[in-house]
Design goal:
- The chain has about 260 residues and is α/β, with parallel strands linked by helices.
- The chain starts with a strand and ends with a helix.
- The chain is about 45% helix and about 20% strand.
- The protein has helices spanning about 15-30, 45-55, 85-100, 120-125, 135-145, 155-170, 175-185, 195-205, 210-220, 245-255, and strands at about 5-10, 35, 60-65, 70-75, 75-80, 105-115, 130, 195, 225, 240.
- The longest helix is centred in the middle third of the chain and has 16 residues, at about 85-100.
- The protein has a five-stranded parallel sheet, with helices on both faces. The protein has a three-stranded antiparallel sheet with strand order 8-10-9.
- The protein has two domains: about 5-155, Rossmann fold (3-Layer(aba) Sandwich); about 160-255, Arc Repressor Mutant, subunit A (Orthogonal Bundle).
Length: about 260
């Protein structure tokens, strides 16, 4: 079973960091899991690589909302708020999952210390945060989540991903560029496109590789379907993406 990356979204106040690191150590101690807990980021490059990169790559997103203190507005009663940054990361994860096929979505679990007011996405999106009383209670709830059905191994999905990794292990930039153009022209479906349009777009992208060889290799590995015989009714040479790996291709192209 592959090691799953769990992104910990957690407050960054001095008294909160120790709890975040303890949670990361707890997750690292569970077989098959690795935690990512981000501490302070001081540059936009650090934000992109450190935060956004791990949000994109993670298998599970764990948000922990601790009590921060009371907030008062003129027109409403005082309430207790947690870290606002957690709401930002929840928004990013929600967008990533919106773009992905259901089988590739990141597992999300939100824990909220009892007494915190629901705001932002936690209030408007059905996330059902689970309340906890103290850190011991939280630790047990996190272990239950990791050991539960969200991360139960699906042998078919695992075999499929391993097959995909093996088939694409020696792909060059040209292979991925060809697949990218196919995804664009077919809108990420098995819709038939005209091979000449693929070649035209690759030329516009100044791709100079051997398109005939690349097309043949992609066909031999089951990524595209193509024929040398033109469709005379439509006046095209038909080619299309094969259905089996479309979602995995899309995810890999987004990562590159």
């Amino acid at each position: 079973m592959p090691t799953r990356l769990i992104f910990i979204s957690h407050g960054q106040l001095p008294e909160e960091k120790g709890k975040g690191l303890a949670l990361a150590n707890l997750i690292d101690g569970v077989g098959g899991f690795r935690a990512f807990f981000a501490e302070d980021v001081h540059s936009t490059d650090g934000l992109s690589e450190h935060i956004f990169g791990n949000l994109e790559r993670c298998d599970g997103f764990l948000a922990v909302m601790h009590r921060r203190g009371e907030v008062t507005f003129r027109d409403r009663s005082p309430f207790t708020r947690s870290s606002v940054w957690i709401q930002q990361e929840l928004a990013i994860i929600s967008f990533i999952n919106f773009q992905r096929h259901a089988s590739r979505r990141i597992k999300v679990r939100v824990f909220a210390e009892r007494g915190i007011k629901r705001e932002g996405l936690v209030d408007t999106v059905i996330l059902n945060p689970i309340e906890f009383e103290d850190d011991n209670d939280l630790s047990m709830l996190v272990i239950e989540w990791l050991m539960g059905p969200d991360f139960a191994e699906d042998p078919i999905a695992t075999t499929r991903e391993e097959l995909f990794r093996g088939l694409t292990a020696n792909f060059t930039e040209g292979h991925w560029k060809y697949l990218e153009v196919m995804m664009i022209l077919s809108a990420g479906t098995t819709n038939v496109v005209d091979e000449s349009h693929v070649h035209t777009m690759l030329g516009q992208m100044q791709f100079s590789g051997n398109m005939t060889n690349i097309k043949g290799e992609l066909g031999a590995k089951g990524f595209i379907w193509h024929t040398t015989r033109p469709d005379r009714e439509r006046g095209i040479i038909p080619t299309s993406l094969a259905a089996g790996f479309i979602d995995l291709i899309a995810d890999e192209l987004r990562r590159q």
